[in-house]
Amino acid sequence: MSPRRGAFRPDLYAGAVAVVTGGTSGIGAAVAVVLAELGAVVHAVGLGAEHATFPPGLRITVSELDVTDDAAMTALFAGLERLDVFVPAAGISLGERELEWDSFQRVVQIQLLAVYRGIQLARPLLARSHGSVVTVASMYATFGGGEIAAYSSAKGGIVQLTKSLAEVYAADGIRVNCVAPGWIDTPLLEALKNDARIHERLLSRTPLGRYGDPREVGEAVAFLASDSAAFVTGAVLPVDGGYLVVGI
Ligand code: NAI
Question: Would you say 58 and 39 are in contact if contact means Cβ atoms under 8 Å apart?
Answer without folding.
Answer: no
